[in-house]
Amino acid sequence: MAQIFVVHPENPQSRLLRQAGELLAEGGLVAVPTDSSYAVVARLDDKAAADSLRRLRGLDDRHHLTLLCRDLAEISHFARVDNAQYRLLKMATPGPWTFILEATREVPRRVSHPSRKTIGIRVPDHRVALALIEAAGSPLISTTLIPRDEELPLNDAQDIFSRYEHELAAVVDGGPCPFEATTVIDLTGPAPQVVRRGRGDPATLGLA
To answer: Domains, the chain, ranges and CATH?
Structure first.
């Protein structure tokens, strides 16, 4: 059965997040609030956990998982970023954006897109999510917590717990968060392409 950790949204208790990080290290999945909606996360280096994450959401291996990073410097370790891309990322991070980038060799093949070798990467603007990444000691693979056969993400920690208490290792309850997905921008082509409009306004980045 999942554990539930109730944390302060602005000053999350490090002791509780360390416990959640330990559950991730043991191969568990953890639900955590972000600046868009709740996400389910796993360690990047854990193949079994990544498979469990896909099963929970009903995703195949062609669906982009997202790598949650602590900062811009960490992004450049896991994705190939040229000067123009770097300037755009610098404007947008942290924030409610997911960027599709070419993955480096630091990203396991099972996590990147099987044919394009790309990965979704973002830096969330949420203290709880960032603190959990810090507690885990490395970026986390994630996906928005949308139940199978539904279209909207979950935004209530108690609801998440009741639905997934036997599939998650923990739910980090940081209170409700914005009820809208990230804006997804593909940076692998000749020009940035908005793939999905969400909470982030492309106009603020100079994109139509």
So the answer is: 3-201 (3.90.870.10)
